[in-house]
Give the backbone structure.
Amino acid sequence: METFIKEVMDNSEFTEEQSDYLLTCLERGDKVEDVLYLAKPSLSVEHMERMRKMEQKRRMEATSQKTQKKRYFWEREKH
């Protein structure tokens, strides 16, 4: 959290809207390192949100693939 405060909240390059959005991401339960990945003063809040959603989708798909592989393995072991 200290890193977030230093890199975002104390950084005058971020607009109030950007820092508020990034803080909201933390309140939603996002990891600090994930939020810092989005924390670029050159990105609009809209772009940050779009990137956040893409990353969440990618992670969900990766988790789903891992689960499917485990199921396949266990089904093969049963037979």
Remarks:
- DSSP finds four helices and no strands in the chain.
